[in-house]
Amino acid sequence: MKNVAYHSGVDDEVCSACYKRELQPRRPCSRCGRVATTSARPDGVNGYCSRCYIRELFVGRCGICRIRKSIAIQHLGKPVCHGCYRREFAARETCSLCNTFALVVARSTRGEPICENCYHSRLQPRERCGRCRQMNVVKARGAHGEPFCPTCYRQTVQTAPCVHCGEVSRVLTRTKGGAPVCSKCYVRHYAVREMCAICGRSDRVKRRLSSGRGVCPTCYVRELAPRPKCAVCGERRPSALRTGSRSVCRACYQRNRAHA
CA 38, CA 180: separation in Å to the nearest integer? Predict the structure, then answer.
C-alpha cells in the first residue's frame, strides 16, 4: 500500500510516485530553466526544480571534506555532503545480478540489492523519446510530460544562444533572470575563484586538498595530476599525446616533431 496523492473523482487512486511521474504539472524552473515538477517556491512566486532546490537551499560546509556543498544528511550533528555520504555512509552489498560488492542504488521486489551499473543497464525504466522516437531511459520530461532521452535532452532541450558570447551551445547554468550561459562563459564569468593553496594566485578551483583548500588548474597539472609513464623515455611526466593506452611526454613529443 502506498500513500494516495490523487483521486480522479471516480474510483481511481494514484500513488505519490505515479502522480509525480505522470500527472503533476511541469513548468520551467525559475533558476535553471529546466522543465520539471516544482519542488518548492521559496519566495512564494518563483518555482524551483528538485535539483536547484537542493543545490540552492540545502547548502552548508560538510563536516568531513570541509567544502561548502549541498547537504545530504546530518551525522552526529554535523552536515554531510552527497559525495561524502556516498563514499562513507551509503549501503554497500553484493549485487544480486553481477555479484559485485558495490553501492546499492535499488532493490528488487524481493529486497535483493542491485548496483548502479546493473540498474542503469538492465532495470532503469525506458520509454519512447518524444523527439527521436527511440526507446531509451528518460532524462527529462517536457511541459506536457513527454519523455526526452539523454541525447535529445542534451542536443535540443538544453541548447540555446549564450547570453554572453551568443554561441548556440549546451546550457550549463542560467543567470538570475533565467538567461542561458554556456560552459566557456561560466568558467570565464561565474566560476568560483579562490586563492590557490600552492601558488597563492586567485584563480578558479580545479581540485581541493584534504584540508579543503583549493588548487588552481595550472598547479593541479604541475603538482597533483597523475603522471603516466612515457612510452618513449620511460619517465613519469605529464602527457602531451595519447594513442590508446600509450602516453608520450611533452619533451619526447617535441623532439619527435623536430626530427620528423
Answer: 20
